[in-house]
Amino acid sequence: MNRLAEMGVDILWFMPITPISAKNKKGSMGSYYACSSYREINPAYGTMDDWKLVVEEAHSLGMKVILDWVANHTGCDHEWTITRPDFYKKNPEGEFYDAHGWDDVIDLNYENQDMRSEMISCMHQWVFETGIDGFRCDMAMLTPVDFWMQARNALQKVRPLFWLAELDPLDNPEYMKVFDAAYTWRWMNETASFIKEGAHHVHQLRQVLDLYSRSLPLSACTAWFTSNHDENSWNGTEYEKYGPMTLPLAVFSTTWKGLPLIYSGQEIPNQKRLKFFEKDPIDWSGNIQLHDFYRSLLQLRKTNAALSCSDGDTQCLHVWNSVDHHVFSYVRSHEEDAVVVLINFSGWDLPEVEVDTLGQTGEYRELFTGETAEFNHQRFLLAIPAWGYKVWVKKKAEQ
Questions:
Q1: According to the model, what pLDDT value does residue 394 have?
Q2: How far apart, in whole angstroms, are the C-alpha atoms of residue 367 and residue 363?
Q3: At a CB cut-off of 8 Å and minimum separation 6, what does 122 contact?
Q4: Residue 252 in contact with residue 339, Cβ under 8 Å?
Q5: By CB count within 10 A, which of 108, 130, 215, 282 is most buried?
Q6: Is the pTM above the cut of 0.85?
Q7: What is residue 378's predicted lDDT score, i.e. its pLDDT?
Q8: Rg of the chain over all Cα atoms, to the nearest angstrom
């Protein structure tokens, strides 16, 4: 945990730590998204006291902790199936079922107000008794948005929390009235298609970004990512999906407006698909090769107001460049702070790229190489290698 704090991580998202249902379980372990109780901890992870110590240590290091909350469904032998079978949806035959064809879970009935109250009570327990700082809400769009508002209003009485929705706000804009941040699935899918189809023209990527910018309120915070537990297990590692585009996308995710979501092991980097229903630990025994890469980016986010997600006065603007079919170029700024980012999303070395920095002036330092340059209102030329990137930071911002 000390290493993660030093790397610049602000929030630790723990996937479900509740007990896993045995009935209809998949593989030898089952799915942590098929719980048998909302109030207990999986004994394989330790005790509730152990968990409280984890939260306390994270807080002592300046990090927040959010817990994965699976509100749409439970495992097939959840304790409520015995004590409160009325909490569940039932088919015409009177049997529990899942509407999406997942055979190891069963759907909860949100028309039942008692079930809603009990769900919020379970969430309250984890906030009040263990000190967590919020929730990552699994498949949030499958649960009625008014329940999430009900839960947020109730839990705000304990203290302000951070709410992350597993949904794309472009598809579910009404949920952004409740949630602080949400995933960018459309962006992830578009970038995967872009590299698969030959990385010919970045305009299609800009169009998706413009759609997020136009469609969402300023208060919406998008979470950018290239991997997570589902993507890694079912669709391949980020290196399988993106190859040489992996690190350029990481630079984008940490410098474009929003929040970067980094999955366990990306800093190693982990190049193995992890089994979903089996115990399949990540190998941390070797050198953490990308620790310094991520530390440079994440620490910059901490110290430079231009990279703020929440400040409405922060600017994030595309800027012109002479090879704009391959190069992303944009400026992040806030008052006197500024960061200029250039990313070559192509397999071509570009020895001479002309860039317009929108009148930015002053001395800048490149984040990864330490080279310096003077920006003086004029366009400037620079070289960017294939799949390369440059992050220019106004020196005043580092003082």
A1: 93
A2: 13
A3: 38, 39
A4: no
A5: 108
A6: yes
A7: 76
A8: 23
The model's confidence at residue 397, banded by pLDDT at 50, 70 and 90, is: very low
Q: CA-CA distance, 342 to 389, in Å (whole number)?
A: 6
Q: Which amino acid is at 44?
A: A
H or E element at residue 52: helix 48-60
Closest CA to 342 of 381, 299, 399: 381
Q: Which CATH superfamily is domain 317-398 in?
A: Golgi alpha-mannosidase II (2.60.40.1180)
Per-domain boundaries in the chain:
2-310, 317-398
Average of per-residue pLDDT across 323-337: 94
Residue type present at position 274:
L
Measured between alpha carbons, how far is 192 from 109 in angstroms, rounded to an integer? 36
Question: How sure is the predictor about 270, in pLDDT bands with cuts at 50, 70 and 90?
Answer: very high
**Residue range 119-133: average pLDDT?**
98
The DSSP bridge pattern shows strands 327-334 and 337-344 to be: antiparallel
Quote the CATH superfamily of domain 2-310. Glycosidases (3.20.20.80)
- Give the least confident one: 58-72, 206-220, 239-253: 206-220
DSSP 85: G
209 vs 147: CA distance, rounded Å: 30
Amino acid identity of residue 188, one-letter, is: M
Q: Which pair of structure tokens corresponds to residue 325?
A: 């079919």
Query: Is residue 181 within 8 Å of residue 136, measured between CB atoms?
Result: no
Rounded Cα gap, residues 88 and 77, in angstroms: 12
pLDDT at 185: 95
Chain mean position to CA 304: 20
Place of tokens 């600017």: 315
Q: Residue 154: how many CB atoms within 10 A of its CB?
A: 15
Q: Is 387 left (phi over 0), alpha (psi -120 to 50) or beta?
A: left
**Distance in angstroms (rounded) separating the CA atoms of residues 234 and 366:** 37
Contact predicate 387/242, CB 8 Å: no
Q: How far apart are CA 135 and CA 164, in angstroms?
A: 6
